[in-house]
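hiii so um. not sure if this is the right channel but i have a protein structure encoded as tokens and i wanna go backwards to a sequence. like what aa goes where. can anyone help
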């Protein structure tokens, strides 16, 4: 009986640690993304543009960016929880690159007005996400699947950026 109680306490402690690490893995990219949107996410130029149906509105960009931050953090946690970043350190590098590219887009395009550089960021973001999807899928298929909507977001971002280029 005492042995079962110790196992239950060990499992409970492991579950608490897992929940804490999951919270951090999701909260950090989400917090950075919300701060990025708050500081750099408004653009009178973008909101005043006539946008065809396939170019997302500003609120759609923001919502997709927040969703992507959540999904990418969750997928990275799934890989980390299985020891995947130790087995394939390049996967962590790809994750950090995609996070950096997504956080750089708003200040580069909306604040600095460097729309051509924004297209380069979109291409780098898409490439890093493809790499993440492949690396994550090898370690945890669910983590790889969670990256796929992020690829769609990168394409939405590129469409928005192209609309700014060819207004």
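sure thing!! here u go:
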């Amino acid at each position: 009986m005492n042995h079962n109680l110790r196992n239950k306490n060990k499992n409970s402690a492991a579950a608490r640690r897992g929940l804490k690490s999951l919270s951090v893995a999701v909260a950090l990219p989400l917090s950075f993304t919300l701060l990025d949107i708050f500081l750099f996410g408004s653009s009178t130029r973008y909101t005043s543009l006539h946008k065809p149906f396939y170019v997302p509105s500003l609120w759609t960009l923001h919502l997709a960016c927040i969703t992507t931050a959540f999904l990418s953090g969750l997928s990275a946690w799934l890989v980390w929880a299985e020891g995947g970043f130790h087995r394939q350190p390049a996967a962590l590098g790809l994750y950090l690159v995609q996070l950096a590219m997504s956080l750089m887009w708003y200040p580069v395009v909306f604040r600095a007005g460097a729309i051509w550089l924004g297209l380069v960021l979109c291409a780098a973001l898409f490439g890093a996400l493809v790499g993440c999807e492949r690396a994550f899928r090898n370690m945890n298929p669910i983590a790889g699947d969670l990256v796929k909507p992020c690829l769609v977001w990168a394409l939405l971002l590129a469409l928005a950026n192209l609309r700014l280029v060819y207004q």
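oh and The first helix runs from residue 2 to 40.
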